[in-house]
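Why Cytochrome P450? Reviewers of the renewal asked for a concrete example.
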Amino acid sequence: MKENFGMVKEKPMKLSHNISPRILPFALQTVEKYGKLSVIWYGAIPRVTIMEPDLIRDVLSNLVHL
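Here is what the prediction returned.
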């Protein structure tokens, strides 16, 4: 958590649609380092990051059947 808060910078952003470095810098760094399917721990709570559309569709369609 300390790393996450330390990565947020208070500098002006360039005008673009790419806001992930500003909003979620720790998650972006994790995806760049470990890939589009990775796990981030927020304290004792694991968060799974899935950034592949086919896998996201499969996960969400299986949630409906639970």
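Strands lie at 37-42, 45-50. This is the kind of structural detail the renewal will allow us to pursue systematically.
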